[in-house]
Design goal:
Number of helices: 2
Distance between the termini: 32 Å
Helix content: 10-25%
Protein name: Phenylacetic acid degradation protein PaaY
Pfam families: Hexapep (PF00132)
InterPro entries: Hexapep, Transf_Hexapept/Carb_Anhydrase, Trimer_LpxA-like_sf
Largest sheet: 12 strands, parallel
Organism: Azospirillum melinis
């Protein structure tokens, strides 16, 4: 694999204080430089925050606990005096919006989901992509919810919870990979012969796991 023409360092994340409150990023977390963190934001150990995520702690506090991830283009915010929390090993998919809610331990919020104020996504549960979780709705632990508005569909099987955990572990590894190997660089002008692939692990989409 051709080594990249690297610039000296990866730019620092875009971080702003407000009212004297400064965001906190644990040294073992990875926050992409294009993500924006404002005010009362706490990113815990081993977390991953993806490109163009907005964590805006200018009203309520935002907390990402150990090993959680918030992926590309996600938005997290809250009303004054309320918090938005993603607990340990929480997993928030691309483009999701969390507003003043709680994602409990090892829960998954799918792509483009909206979770409203006072809602609680239960431990080990999965919210299907594109769902709308209305204000105050409590998702029971180890359940699948889906729809507009989201409704409980069924209890999750052990293999589905295991699949979720495996995917989160890959994002924890991605935080380490990004800290160790991501550099700002110039693009190549053409694809090189024998082009390598990234070290993406072995996690598979759920429909393939079910079909195995």
């Amino acid at each position: 694999m051709t080594a990249p023409t690297a610039f000296p360092t990866l730019p620092r994340p875009t971080v702003y204080a407000i009212d004297g409150v400064i965001p906190v990023i644990d040294p073992t977390a990875f926050v992409h430089p294009s993500a924006v963190l404002i005010g009362d934001v706490v990113v815990g150990p081993g977390c991953y925050v993806g490109p163009c995520a907005s964590l805006r702690g200018d009203f309520g506090r935002i907390v990402l606990q150990r090993g959680s991830n918030v992926q590309d283009n996600c938005t997290i915010h809250a009303f004054p005096g309320h918090d938005a929390i993603v607990e340990e090993d929480g997993h928030v998919g691309h483009g999701a919006v969390l507003h003043g809610c709680i994602v409990r331990r090892n829960a998954l919020v799918g792509m483009n989901v909206v979770v409203m104020d006072g809602a609680e996504i239960g431990e080990d549960s999965i919210v299907a992509a594109m769902a709308f979780v209305k204000a105050g709705f409590v998702v029971p632990p180890r359940t699948l919810v889906a729809g507009l508005p989201a409704k409980v569909m069924r209890e999750l099987r052990p293999d589905e919870v295991a699949w979720k955990s495996e995917g989160t572990e890959e994002y924890q590894r991605l935080a380490r990979r990004s800290r160790a190997t991501m550099v700002a660089c110039a693009p190549l002008e053409a694809e090189e012969p024998g082009r390598g692939r990234v070290d993406a692990g072995t996690s598979q989409p759920l429909h393939k796991v079910k079909g195995a």
